């Protein structure tokens, strides 16, 4: 999974990226500090791996990972190539979802590109540039379908749909807000690869005082929360400064620090959970002496395709999957005991994988 971190210059984007990934990306108080995208890979916390490791004593433990991409700050005119616009748009196109960092704090020492803080204006500035880019794609799609109608009138329905999408975008709506009347329209929209179709999490970056003092006291956060609801988008309250502080601490120190400010989880842990939910992701597990590992798949994935995540040969030569629920395996203490209790199932090609399945794939090529 790849998340692109976007936002206007000087909203705390690179500070948050550094805190989340400990990658040491450059961060400074001037626009375009980030030119080439910084990339950081973080592991997905999963206590199930630790429990399985106690049973199997593996040579290594491999958690699932998320890739964060810190993309250059955006300015008005990016869709026309202003600033680093073309680079920004191409980088975001490669991401699965967008983490949009929005400034929700006052600080006279940190320059705002527009002179003052207004989170909704900032959100709409970036969304507008993405919409303008999408409109170019839609225009080309309309031209293509219009030519197809000359050969076959059946494409009129699709052309009508693209004109509807064009109208909605021109009114300032993101593609993810556009209603699709049926599966066919949903498929058309997904094939267009529009930037504003990408799932988004708005990270409301607040000061340490506002974050610790209660979210509802921050009027900027309330504005972003209301806006996010209009898009069916997610919102994540964060304090990049706090995240930067705890990123330097040991695991024990981090837990104490979070407890002192009334939090159970770090911003990274909350972000990972939100990202999995937003993208409809789950993890299945494989376990043995060589390795205990988590594999990320989309909810609804069938067993052969899940096997293909390990190796294409597993999917091509899939025979069956030997599956046990994680909780059942832990309760039994070993795979042998689980088999004695009849808890290990043999599943075929139509089996839909579940979060926490511990699996052994049988294949032949």
What is the structure about, briefly put?
The chain is an alpha/beta fold and 365 residues long.
What's the structural blueprint in terms of helices and strands?
Layout: E1 2-6, H1 13-21, E2 38-43, H2 47-56, E3 60-62, E4 65-70, H3 85-93, E5 97-103, H4 119-149, H5 156-170, H6 183-191, E6 200-205, H7 208-213, H8 219-231, E7 234-238, H9 240-246, H10 251-260, H11 267-279, E8 281-287, E9 291-298, H12 303-308, H13 312-316, E10 318-325, H14 326-332, H15 335-340, E11 345-347, E12 357-363
Parallel strand pairs: 1-4, 1-5, 3-9, 5-6, 6-7
Antiparallel strand pairs: 2-4, 8-9, 10-11, 10-12
Helix pairs in contact: 1-9, 4-5
Bulk shape? flat
In whole angstroms, the N-to-C terminal distance is 29 Å
Number of helices: 15
The counted number of beta strands is 12
Largest sheet: 6 strands, mixed
Strand content: 15-25%
Helix content bin: 40-55%
Order of helices and strands: EHEHEEHEHHHEHHEHHHEEHHEHHEE
Q: List the uncertain runs.
A: 23-35
Q: Please state how the strands of the largest beta sheet are arranged side by side.
A: 2-4-1-5-6-7
Give the overall pLDDT as a whole number: 88
Gyration radius (Cα, Å) is 23 Å
Helix and strand content put the structural class at alpha/beta
Overview of the molecule:
The chain has 365 residues and is an alpha/beta fold. Helix content is 43%, strand content 19%. It contains 15 helices and 12 strands. It has helices spanning 13-21, 47-56, 85-93, 119-149, 156-170, 183-191, 208-213, 219-231, 240-246, 251-260, 267-279, 303-308, 312-316, 326-332, 335-340, and strands at residues 2-6, 38-43, 60-62, 65-70, 97-103, 200-205, 234-238, 281-287, 291-298, 318-325, 345-347, 357-363. A 6-stranded mixed β-sheet has the order 2-4-1-5-6-7, sandwiched between helices. A hairpin with a 3-residue loop joins strand 8 and strand 9 (291-298). The longest helix is centred in the middle third of the chain and has 31 residues, at 119-149. Mean pLDDT is 88; it is low at 23-35.
């Amino acid at each position: 999974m790849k998340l692109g971190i976007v936002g206007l210059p000087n909203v705390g984007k690179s500070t948050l990226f550094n805190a989340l990934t400990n990658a040491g990306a450059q961060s400074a108080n001037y626009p375009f500090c980030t030119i080439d995208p910084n990339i950081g890979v973080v592991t997905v916390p999963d206590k199930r791996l630790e429990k399985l490791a106690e049973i199997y004593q593996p040579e290594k433990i491999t958690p699932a990972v998320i890739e964060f991409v810190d993309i250059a700050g955006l300015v008005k005119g990016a869709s026309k190539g202003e600033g680093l616009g073309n680079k920004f748009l191409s980088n975001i196109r490669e991401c699965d979802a967008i983490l949009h960092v929005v400034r929700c704090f006052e600080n006279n020492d940190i320059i705002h590109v527009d002179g003052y803080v207004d989170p909704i204006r900032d959100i709409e500035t970036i969304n507008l540039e993405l919409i303008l880019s999408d409109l170019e794609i839609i225009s080309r799609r309309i031209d293509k379908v219009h030519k197809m109608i000359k050969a076959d009138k059946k494409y009129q329905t699709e052309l009508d749909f693209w004109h509807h999408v064009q109208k909605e975008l021109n009114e300032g709506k993101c593609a993810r807000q556009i209603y699709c009347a049926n599966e066919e329209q949903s498929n058309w929209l997904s094939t267009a690869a529009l930037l504003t179709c990408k799932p988004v999490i708005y990270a409301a970056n607040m000061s340490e005082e506002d974050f610790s003092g209660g979210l509802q006291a921050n009027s900027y956060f309330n504005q972003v929360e209301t806006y996010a609801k209009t898009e069916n988008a997610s919102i994540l309250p964060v304090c990049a400064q706090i995240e930067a502080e705890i990123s330097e601490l040991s695991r024990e120190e981090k837990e104490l620090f979070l407890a002192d400010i009334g939090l159970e989880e770090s911003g990274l842990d909350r972000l990972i959970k939100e990202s999995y939910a937003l993208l409809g992701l789950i993890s299945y597990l494989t376990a043995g002496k060589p390795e205990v590992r988590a594999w990320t798949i989309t909810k609804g994935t069938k067993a052969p395709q899940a096997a293909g995540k390990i190796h294409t040969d597993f999917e091509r030569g899939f025979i069956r999957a030997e599956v046990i629920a994680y909780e059942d395996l832990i309760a039994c203490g070993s795979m042998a005991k689980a088999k004695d209790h009849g808890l290990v199932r043999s599943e075929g090609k139509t089996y839909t994988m579940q979060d926490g399945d511990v699996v052994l794939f049988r294949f032949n090529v």
